[in-house]
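Morning. Coffee machine broken again, so started the prediction first thing and wrote up yesterday's gels while waiting. Chain of 176 residues, entered below exactly as on the submission form.
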Amino acid sequence: MSLPDKCLVDTNVPKIANLALAPGDIPQELAGCVLACVEAVEHVIEKRGLVIDAGDEIFAEYLHQLSLKGGPGMGDRFMKWVHDNRWTLPDSDRVSISQNGDSYDEFPVHEGLNDFDRSDRKFVAVANAHANKPPILQATDCKWWGWKDALAEVGIIVEFLCPGYIEVKYAEKIGT
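Came back before lunch.
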């Protein structure tokens, strides 16, 4: 998979990257996913290609779920990098979004997105408000698989780092 130079990173990407610390404990069906997440995090850091919100809502979510110490995992290294570099990212990649109830003014209007997870709307709002509509990297949250077509219809692309895994989990969730 070719990764984009600029993107948003769902929190589960660095969290899954952290699983590389204990390779023997990784379920077989997640092994390739862990590697893909490690590579994605390394790519974002190397390219300085992160897009986030100017109000630090995404940063706060990262901080709540990752270690600011920068280790021991690759996801924690990502957290430390975001902390140390978020103010040096180009202004165009620190996007302003406006909260509106439990959503955002910048969240796209589409019937297929009416039930979109409230806690993940910030990622979509930022992607939608950014001039280039950068893709969102997604690892294991299978709900996103069900929304991918509606998101694509409004110009938002989700790059699934673990498409085989997430498609199976989505099918199990909806009972097909």
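DSSP finds seven helices and seven strands in the chain. Going to sketch it on the whiteboard this afternoon.
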